[in-house]
Amino acid sequence: MVEQISYGPFACASFFFGMSLLERKTFTEAIEEVKEKFAPTYKVGICVWPFLQTINFSVVPEHNRVVFVSICSLIWTCFLAYMKTKEMEHAIQIEAETND
């Protein structure tokens, strides 16, 4: 729980903000994207990560814990990428409808 309260919000906001800047969006656009996507993504993280960490420390043998968390982190990164592109898909759909 400590990780979700202290590190989770920072990591989530940093991901969306940093990726937006790497896409050459303006500072204001990056902030708007964080405002739009932070809450839904963080809500999922709060539900998923405590559950995964409970499994990690109660079921997974000690020598396999790093591997288990690494696999979970890979899946989480795929989810973050999905959340990042979610708006783009919606914007492309609206643009296509406008052009028709």
TrEMBL record:
Keywords tagged on the record: Membrane, Transmembrane, Transmembrane helix
Superkingdom, taxonomy of origin: Eukaryota
Transmembrane segments: 66-83
Primary localization class, coarse: membrane
Membrane topology category: Multi-pass membrane protein
Glycoprotein listed as a keyword: no
Subcellular location: Membrane
GO cellular component, one term: mitochondrion
N-terminal signal peptide: none
PANTHER family assigned to the protein according to its UniProt record, in alphabetical order: IP10007P-RELATED, PEROXISOMAL MEMBRANE PROTEIN 2, PXMP2 MPV17
Family of this protein: Belongs to the peroxisomal membrane protein PXMP2/4 family.
Protein name in the entry: Mpv17-like protein isoform X3
